[in-house]
Every structure is written in C-alpha cells, then in structure tokens.
Specification:
This protein is of the alpha+beta class. It has one domain. The protein has a 5-stranded mixed β-sheet. It is built from 6 helices and 5 strands; from the N terminus they run E-H-H-H-H-H-E-E-E-H-E. The longest helix is centred in the first third of the chain and has 32 residues. The protein is elongated. The two termini are 20 Å apart.
Length: 205
C-alpha cells in the first residue's frame, strides 16, 4: 500500500552513486544509435539503388549485420524484463495509477535502459537509494539499442512520443509529469513487507 501526498513536498535528498554509470550508458547509447542509424540508412539506400538490379553481396551482408545487432538488443531487453519480479511490478503498478497511465507503459520505460533497472533495484535495497523519480513526458522515440524494434526500418523515423524515464533526479530534465517515490524505512522492499503497512509515499513533482 502507498500513501499519496498532495501538498508540495521538497525534492528528496537523492543519492548520486549511479551518476557516472548512467552518464556513460547514455553516451554509449547515443554513439551506438547514431552509428546504427547511419548503417541502416546506408543499407536502405543501397537496397533501393540495387532493387531493380538484384542485391549485391555487400548490401545483403550489411543488412544481415544490422539485423543481428537488433536481435541482440532485443535479447538484452527481454533479459531486463525477466529481472522484474513481483515487488518491482508492485511499485510499477502504483506509479502507473498515480500517473493515470497503463502499467505496461511504465514497464516499457523501465526496461529501455539497464540504468533504469539498476536504479529501481537500488531503491528496493536496504542501505541504498531512499527515493527515485518516474518521469512521464514527450521525448524522442526510443533509440534502437533499447531493443524495442525487431526490424531496423521501424526505428528510422524521427518522432516524439510519450515515454517513462527512471531517474535519481540528477540527469532527466523535468518537462511534464513526474512522481517521486519515497521509501518510509531503510530496508529491503519485498512483497511480504510491502503489503503489511504503508512502506512507500508517492508525491507529484
């Protein structure tokens, strides 16, 4: 169970242990995404230029390489999804209810990045983070490395869409909606204690 706090609350004192890890992962994702997009665009251009003359081996090889990389990203995404257990989903459900969105949208945002999953795990562990923030706002479409795409052409369109981000308050800029989840006591969050008494407080940012 969770207690909702409507009045304005000061920002939590958030830990900064994951700052370097999240920065590095986001930088690597940006670099990899740009390279993969460039490769994909080139592969599509090659395909179109050769479609009436038959594929050459270079174009086919390039397209196969991109498919292999996207399959790997998809596998990594499924692996992140498999780590979400009942306590994780309990928190996700509460966040979704607070934001008024489907909980699958929260799940999709959480498993977009390993850093998101790590922050959620840290919050649920004793002696680690005491608060985390879930942002829900417009942003660029998820990069290819998130594993959301099964075919490279799906991820080539540049568009803006609603996405969920998990943050410690140090990286993601607040634009629209956000909910801060506080832990009442410094202890491991498990289903057996999450149901006993209010262990979490949710408040709008």
């Amino acid at each position: 169970m969770a207690e909702e706090v409507d009045e304005e609350s000061p920002l939590p004192s958030l830990d900064i242990d994951a700052e370097e890890e999240e920065d590095e992962e986001e930088e690597n994702l940006d670099d990899d995404s740009e390279r993969l997009k460039d490769d994909a665009h080139q592969a599509v251009a090659n395909f179109r230029s050769n479609k009436y003359r038959g594929h050459n081996l270079s174009t086919v090889s390039q397209m196969e390489n991109i498919k292999e990389r996207l399959n790997k990203y998809k596998e990594n995404r499924l692996a992140r999804l498999s780590t979400l257990q009942l306590p994780h989903r309990h928190i996700i459900e509460m966040v979704a209810l607070f934001l008024g969105i489907d909980q699958n949208e929260v799940v999709e945002g959480v498993i977009d990045l390993e850093a998101h999953v790590n922050l959620l795990n840290a919050f649920m562990s004793k002696g680690d983070k005491h608060a985390i923030i879930f942002f829900y706002q417009d942003d660029e479409a998820p990069p290819l490395e998130t594993g959301r795409y099964s075919a490279f052409v799906t991820g080539l369109k540049e568009k803006i869409e609603k996405r969920v981000f998990v943050s410690d308050g140090l990286h993601t800029a607040f634009k629209e909606q956000a909910v801060v989840v506080y832990k009442v006591e410094d202890k491991d969050l498990e289903m057996r204690n999450l149901g006993e008494q209010p262990e979490l407080i949710l408040t709008a940012l």
